[in-house]
Amino acid sequence: MSNQCVEVPNQKAMAHLPTRLHHHAYVTDDQEATRHFYEDILGIPLVALWIENEEFQGTTVVFSHAFYEIADGSALAFFNFADAAQQAMFAAKQQLLFVHVALHVSSEAAVLLRQRLEAADIKIQKLEHGYCRSLYVTDPNGLILEFTEDAQNVDQINSRQRASAHASLKRWLAGERKSNKDEAIK
Length: 186
What we know:
2 domains
């Protein structure tokens, strides 16, 4: 979706929508392996690493919190805990493809990312969705990343989706399972 102001036909919508994702947090067992993957392979820079001691549910939790910055100022963040029992308790659970973080990239960035990942011998999966082309990769922590390149007619696709989203949701909730993708990506 583009960064344009969106008119929402729902009276319950906030007057001021969030402006961007601040960060997406995940847990890592190895901050250096994570740094190598994000910074050295993907080229996403480490911009902060906080070492914190916080009270959480009646106990002190000591952890590092690393931030890798995306172009809009948002970040992917990774916790690592000093105590092995806490690390095990907070560890992220491996998910399948449907649980992932999707990052928008230009066509040029998609090509470069694919080349960097292939050079590092990291398994990738490519999917053509019609409304976007995606490159999926799993980081050293099991987090699935999707790098998404928009279709050339993304503005028309997004306009049609904005106009039909509520009607499509009603059809889905009523049990209709016919795909609406072909009509939306024309």
